[in-house]
Amino acid sequence: MSSGKQPLIIGLTGGIASGKTTVANLFHDHFGIDIVDADIIAREVVAPGSQGLKAITEHFGYDILTSQGHLNRAKLREKIFTNVTEKSWLNALLHPMIRDKMQKDLAKVTSPYALLVVPLLVENQLQSMTDRILVIDVSEETQITRTMQRDKVSREQVESILASQVSRDERLKYADDIIHTDVCDEVLPQVMQLHQQYLTLCC
């Protein structure tokens, strides 16, 4: 920013299919708020030609790649799903890369505040990167229904994913702000209200 003042960093998080992307896009589309998305960065650090993909290929072998030279995510998931050692190795490689890229992208922010979208913000203890935490909250039943429809997966698979994330109650303990997304028509008014609040905090 021209004043040299650091923008306010709002950590946006929530469970699977809670509506994180929808909410972040409302802030961006209506108010021009910059978004730094951990999921997008996680893909960038293992893109063809990246140091991340080079290290993964050296560790797991070239059969971890697709015929086009991209990371075969399904095969990687298979290798680390039941292997704690391999999962720890992968996290130790990628988490610092992702965090470093997030910090670099946040340094380029030009809006008064920015949204740092991190699905596993609480699980990976990244609260220190934020000034406030905005939790996108939704009922578990809505999460299950949305994920089954979106990803064409079974109820059991969704319940397994939910079990691997922190509970709804635990996540809410970290919330400075909450947006409820069970009713779609009620989301934008909540975004508008929080936008005004955040602008006040930026002053």
From TrEMBL:
Q: Where does ATP bind?
A: A17, S18, G19, K20, T21, T22
Q: In which pathway does it act?
A: Cofactor biosynthesis; coenzyme A biosynthesis; CoA from (R)-pantothenate: step 5/5
PROSITE patterns xrefs: DPCK
Q: One GO biological process from the UniProt record?
A: coenzyme A biosynthetic process
Subcellular compartments: Cytoplasm
* Reactions catalysed: 3'-dephospho-CoA + ATP = ADP + CoA + H(+)
Keywords annotated in UniProt: ATP-binding, Coenzyme A biosynthesis, Cytoplasm, Kinase, Nucleotide-binding, Transferase
Coiled coil, from the record = none
Q: What is its main location?
A: cytoplasm
Q: What EC number is given for this enzyme?
A: 2.7.1.24
Which CDD domains does the protein's record reference? DPCK
Pfam families under this entry?
CoaE
Similarity comment: Belongs to the CoaE family.
| Record PANTHER family | BIFUNCTIONAL COENZYME A SYNTHASE-RELATED, DEPHOSPHO-COA KINASE-RELATED
Q: Tell me, what does this protein do in biology?
A: Catalyzes the phosphorylation of the 3'-hydroxyl group of dephosphocoenzyme A to form coenzyme A.
Q: What is this protein called?
A: Dephospho-CoA kinase
Organism classification, top ranks?
Answer: Bacteria, Pseudomonadati, Pseudomonadota, Gammaproteobacteria, Vibrionales
